[in-house]
Structure formats: C-alpha cells, structure tokens
Design a protein that fits this description.
Largest sheet: 3 strands, parallel
Distance between the termini: 20 Å
Oligomer: single chain
Radius of gyration: 18 Å
Shape: globular
Structural class: mainly alpha
Number of domains: 2
CATH superfamily of the largest domain: HAD superfamily/HAD-like
CATH architecture of the largest domain: 3-Layer(aba) Sandwich
CATH topology of the largest domain: Rossmann fold
Order of helices and strands: HHHHHEHEHEHEHEH
Number of helices: 10
Helix content: 40-55%
Length: 245
Amino acid sequence: MFDFDGTLTLLRAGWMPVMLDMMMETLARLGPDPVVLREEAEAYVAQFTGKDTVHQMQAFADHVRALGGCPRPANDYKTEFFGRFDQTRNARVDALNRGSLRADDLMVPGSRALLERLRAAGIRIFLASGTAHEVICEEVKLLGIDCYFEAIHGSAPACFTKRTLLEHLVASGIPPAGILTFGDGRVEIEDTKCVGGVAVGVATDEPDCIEVDPKKRVWLTHAGADYIIPNYLEADLPAIVLGIP
C-alpha cells in the first residue's frame, strides 16, 4: 500500500509550512512565545498527516480554544487552507499541462521505476490517501501512474480510512507479514504496524528529495517504521524490503 502526497507525488510539496503559517496568524495573538506555539502546532500537524486534513484543523481549533481563543469550525479552516495552497498545486498542474514540467518532476525520485518493478513481479498495489477520492483519481491519471494500482482509495465522500483498507486486506486472506506500506505520515505507519505489516517511512526532504529529513525520521521512527528512506533511488530497495531480485 502506498500513501500518495509526499510518498509518491510532490504536487503538494511544501504544504506544511503553508499550513503552519496560516495557524500562526491566529496562534501568535494568543500566546507569548511564537516559537513554542509553532512547535506545538507542528506536532499535531505531523500526528495527523495521512488523515483527512479536517483532523489537523480540529486539533488546531482545540489549540485555539485551549489558549482562550474562539475558534472557527474545523471545516472552515480546512477550506481556507486548501484555498491558499491550491494556488501552488494548480500552478504545478498548469506547468505539467504546458510541458514545462514532466510528470516525474512532480514525483518522489524513483517512484515510477519502483511501481513498474512491483507490478512486473506480480505484486498487488493499492493507493490510499487522506485527500478526497476524486482528486486522487484525477492526479494519478495526470501523472500517468493509475495503471499500477489494483484499487485507489481517497477520503470523502466515502467513509474511508487506511486502517479500514489494511484490515480488509487481512480479512481477505492476505497474511499480515505480506502487507508492506510506503508512507510519509504517522497514520499509515501506525496502522500498518497495528495489523502486523511492514512499514517503510518515506522521510524525504521535499522538494529536493535527496536526503532524509531529520524531523520526518523522528516522527516516522516513533510511529514504528521498519525502514527509513529519502526516495526510491536505492537500487537494492526491492530486494532489501521485498526479496525481489
């Protein structure tokens, strides 16, 4: 199972600083130490990365309330965040459509080659994301990788979680040890370990995706990742993780 944003695609690279900047516009007025407030916000943003964005916004609303503020509904914050960051995402899509960017420029290095290698080995591949289902379906086609996945699962409007998919796979007869997840968020790593699978933490330093991001390493290691990688360029990765020659 693959997560999508930050694990395969870079269409939304840089989303976390934008989200934190938006939160700090409110939080900085409610507390004396903006550095501490931003660190607190970053902690719950990281905690819920991989789930529907509304979970991060609910944690933000709770933070505002705890500081004595009067928060707006979580869905309002979610709408505001997407309104801000979609300008960046849409500019990248436009560049791709114009031909000034290639699809692989908007993917974690080595993604397509790994997907091709897995498919050639006969491995079933699933995509699961906290982003809306219709958006994910549109973007995998745009990147030309929809053909690799047996099924694609996004969030709303369906009532979906990554844990639900993983439990369904186990219930369908796949042994837990036969489940391997690639993800850059705590959620998919924790869910995979809960069902007994193997988890690879994609701790890439966006947008260059060359080195391991030290903060992501800590978050994903604490979540239980069995491996930490910066990208998929390591030639021996399938052999190390999957035993594929």
